[in-house]
Amino acid sequence: MSDHVLTLNAGSSSVKFALFAVEPDGPLLVAGGQAEGLGAEPLFHARVVGGPACDSALASNDHQGAINAIVDWVDETLPRAVIAAVGHRVVHGGVCYAAPIIVDDAALAALETLAPLAPLHQRHNLSGIRAARRAFPGEPQIACFDTAFHRGHDFLNEVYALPRAFYERGLRRFGFHGLSYEFISLRLRDVDPVVAGGRVIVAHLGNGASICAMKDGRSVASTMGFSALEGLPMGTRCGRIDPGLLLYLLEHDKMSVDGLSQLLYRESGLLGLSGLSQDMRTLEASDSAQAREAIDYFVHHICMEIAALAAVLKGLDALVFTGGIGEHSPHVRAAVIESLKWLGFALDAPANAGNAPLISSSASRAPVYVIATDEESMIARHAIDAAGLARAVAA
Ligand SMILES: Nc1ncnc2c1ncn2[C@@H]1O[C@H](COP(=O)(O)OP(=O)(O)O)[C@@H](O)[C@H]1O
Ligand SMILES: CC(=O)OP(=O)(O)O
Ligand SMILES: [Mg+2]
């Protein structure tokens, strides 16, 4: 049997995984799933491609337990699959890491120092690496960074207007969701090769949400900055906010730093505004006026940021929606396109209602695409390259 690559995408309450066979023309998905509800009621879902779903409760509630369950399931279900490398999504690579790396102790220690910059993600990503090292002690663990795709930004799109020494210290804009944007950039070459070489705005709208401006397939600017808090409002994160308000909460309300972090990362965004849920499906199904206002605020800021990024690109040749909301919410997409009519966009309503790949009408000045992202396959491609498995399979 050919070599396999396991990919792990450890979030705050879930670990998504996928298993790919290393084939001569790239990774081939064999199985995938996730352990979710960690810390609460943990559940495990997995399936082999083309096979029945396997759903079960998880005995253990933490990330180590989730990874053990994933490894056990792969062992039992696909006993002949040889795991030759494990690829990990690591949200923050800081200034040092602009490409995937094979993780060693020194790199793990360096990545640990970035944990405060991504409190919802980084320490879970790193505990995934530690758990996978224990499960596959001889195999390379490859860290693939969300920040890496954005590391070519020019100074104006990377700097904050603080004294220069802060920039030199690494306190600058990074941008996230880079594995998703990299996948979309490559996919767009097949979908629309002409546009792929132009000025494209990609809206990754999931539980975390950001927008990326691309020129010739490369990231030029992102709505996310130093941390994954900036830019759009998200499931539980506030997005763009006046730093003066934060000073006020610290000074006047005597809020603790932990309390402020909890407020900004976990209690704000769609959840905070609606008072109901962080989940777009729940908000769309609700009759509550606050749920509607939360969706309107989300759409309003998507439109503001798209216009700002169009100014950065000095024009716009295509718009792409991706992420759970971008791929599945006709309501959000229609509201965005309706508000951006002045940019020349026109919607094909039936295509949009059916989540079709092209949702703009022939009257649209530029195409609007819906493209399903696949961070897992991007991680697998990087892991195969970094571990030298492509050469092995070609030999
Ligand atoms: N059919 C749908 N309609 C509207 N929103 C959806 C739909 N399916 C998924 N979503 C939304 O997508 C979001 C999750 O996106 P996803 O990209 O999976 O997030 P993450 O990877 O950050 O956990 C949730 O808000 C969810 O409600
Ligand atoms: C960086 C980030 O926000 O990631 P996610 O969307 O997975 O929360
Ligand atoms: Mg995501």
UniProtKB/TrEMBL annotation:
Kindly state the subunit structure of this protein.
Answer: Homodimer.
Per UniProt, subcellular location reads as: Cytoplasm
Under catalytic activity, the entry for this protein gives: acetate + ATP = acetyl phosphate + ADP
Q: Does the keyword ATP-binding apply?
A: yes
Q: What is this protein called?
A: Acetate kinase
Give the pathway. Metabolic intermediate biosynthesis; acetyl-CoA biosynthesis; acetyl-CoA from acetate: step 1/2
Its chief place of residence is: cytoplasm
What positions are marked as the site Transition state stabilizer?
H177, R237
Gene source species: Methylocystis parvus
The cofactor note reads: Mg(2+). Can also accept Mn(2+).
| Reported cofactor(s) | Mg(2+); Mn(2+)
